[in-house]
Design a protein that fits this description.
It contains 14 helices and 19 strands. With 519 residues, the chain is an alpha+beta fold. Helix 12 packs antiparallel against helix 13.
Length: 519
């Protein structure tokens, strides 16, 4: 049981934070002045975070602020090697077929001054997975599995799954740790965590500031503050860095004008067209193959993405377990696409039926132009395609189940597998009843489920086969590109973005550049 004195202290701190927010005051002691300071990072994002709720940190608008800055997980995945590394847990082992045991790192404190222990870890896992508050990471990483979580002593947590789960530690790496005083029945706006920073203030619609967490047990970051702003236009974000109004600007396109301050990096995102394969004419394999053949991947990457990307043959990139390096992208062959559409039409397939081609405004640079190029190719192939551009909320109605019953849809998607294992992609996008899948077969579902049970080299080979079989057996997707991103970085900052930067931008990794300007 948690000592009463500890519960009381946390309750007082939590109440004070809520009161500060209610009155519009800052969360910590601050004058809310953000004059240029060499130890302050000014960061401009495409949009304001909708929340700082830790269990929604897999959202691309939330994660770069929250993950490993305000809160931390038990385990971290190295974005370069893919290896799991200790964070708030020192070690983990599979102690029975269905149970994993995690040993907690001792001496860590939350920003409210209370000590992190196994009780907090168990609470955080239960709050994220076994609750009804609708955490994003629950659906994305864990599906519908119920876990049995127990703090067996202050330094030990056990997690038991319904069936053996060889990648449970990888899943657990997505759960951010919070104290037991965190609301278990609802999401929070301002979290308490163990990370190097805490929320200083958040002026909704204006700025969000982080300051050093005085209780942080790790090395002190070089930058003591970070101030986030948001601007929709990429060119505006880039200009803020080139004009010395910010040190970091994210999610830029090559045309946004960052110049020599722009840094290109693979961002783990793969773009693709998802075809609603249970609706005519898309329920005909020949039509789906024709759509795939109509996509000029190399032309789009060269002309619209300015070379920042690689043609895709599957929904995951090279850093993901299961990536198949023997699959080649579908070649652009408009003549063959026309032949397939004509064959389907001759057999009575209603190829003249209007198909919605849906894109999300601002999904990536040149999204509008990309959609128009694809629509033009599909028109030449003999299909009747109408473009509809939507905002995020509108597009999400078509991306996740239950889907609108409005006829055939081709949806532009962008999938980033932050977890590093193809299982997360397959569960969501390839299973016939996947959260973001429109189609599949019982046989292909069994192939995926068998792959999920494997470990080591057998797991790699099994998922590589799944990814090779998807276009051969199902062809729900026309893969387009493994994307690159551009980040603008002031010459005063040393930082190398990596494949995780779009989801987790660690401020502690940013340092002052040397006098020579080398990173």
């Amino acid at each position: 049981m948690q000592p009463a004195s500890r519960r009381t202290l946390r309750a007082v701190v939590a109440a004070a934070a809520v009161a500060a927010l209610a009155t519009g005051c800052s969360v910590a002691n601050t004058t809310q002045t953000d004059a240029a300071d060499p130890n302050t990072l000014r960061i401009v994002l495409p949009q304001e975070p909708p929340t700082l709720e830790p269990c929604d940190a897999s959202l691309t608008a939330t994660g770069p602020v929250v993950r490993s800055n305000i809160t931390e997980p038990l385990i971290e995945r190295n974005p370069d090697s893919g290896d799991l590394e200790p964070k708030l847990a020192d070690s983990w082992e599979q102690t029975s077929p269905n149970t994993w045991t995690f040993r907690i790192h001792e001496g860590v404190k939350f920003s409210d001054g209370t000590t992190f222990d196994a009780e907090d870890a168990a609470f955080s896992i239960n709050r994220t997975i076994n609750s009804s508050i609708g955490c994003e990471v629950d659906g994305y990483v864990f599906g519908d599995d119920e876990l049995v979580v127990e703090a067996t002593d202050p330094a030990t947590v056990t997690v038991t799954t319904p069936t053996p789960d060889p990648i449970l530690p990888l899943r657990i790496s997505f759960i951010e740790m919070v104290p037991t005083t965190t609301d278990a029945g609802d999401k929070v706006r301002i979290p308490i965590g163990t990370g190097p920073y805490l929320v200083d203030y958040w002026d909704a619609g204006q700025k969000l500031a982080l300051a050093l967490n005085p209780e942080y047990s790790g090395p002190t970051p070089e930058y003591t503050r970070a101030v986030y702003q948001w601007r929709t236009e990429g060119s505006v974000r880039a200009a803020m860095v080139t004009n010395d109004e910010a040190e970091i600007a994210t999610y830029l396109g090559p045309e946004d004008g960052a110049g020599d301050l722009g840094v290109s990096y693979p961002n783990n995102e793969t773009t693709a067209l998802r075809m609603q394969a249970d609706e005519p004419p898309l329920d005909d394999y020949r039509v789906r193959e024709a759509i795939d053949l109509s996509v000029n991947r190399d032309g789009i990457i060269k002309a619209l993405f300015r070379g920042l990307g690689d043609s895709a043959s599957q929904l995951v990139g090279p850093s993901i377990v299961g990536f198949n390096d023997e699959i080649t992208p579908t070649p652009y062959d408009l003549n063959r696409a026309k032949e397939l559409v004509a064959e389907a039409k001759a057999d009575g397939v209603p190829v003249d039926k209007q198909i919605k081609l849906i894109g999300r405004t601002g999904m990536f640079p040149k999204i509008n132009e990309t959609i128009e190029v694809i629509q033009n190719s599909l028109d030449q192939a003999g299909l009747n395609v109408k473009i509809e551009m939507m905002d995020t909320s509108g597009q999400m109605l078509y991306q996740i189940r239950p889907f609108p019953d409005e006829g055939p849809v081709i949806l532009m998607i962008q999938h980033g597998n932050q977890a590093g294992d193809a299982q997360f992609t397959a569960e969501q996008y390839l299973l016939s009843d996947g959260y973001q899948s429109t189609y599949g077969t019982a046989a292909f579902d069994r192939e995926i489920e068998t792959a999920q049970e494997q470990i080591g080299d057998a797991r790699q080979d099994a998922f590589a086969a799944v990814l090779a079989d998807e276009p051969r057996l199902i062809r729900q997707y026309a893969y387009i590109a493994h994307m690159n991103a551009v980040l603008a970085k002031a010459s005063t900052v040393a930082y190398q973005p990596n494949s995780a930067t779009g989801d987790e931008m660690r401020l502690a990794e940013m340092t002052h550049a040397t006098a020579s300007g080398n990173d």
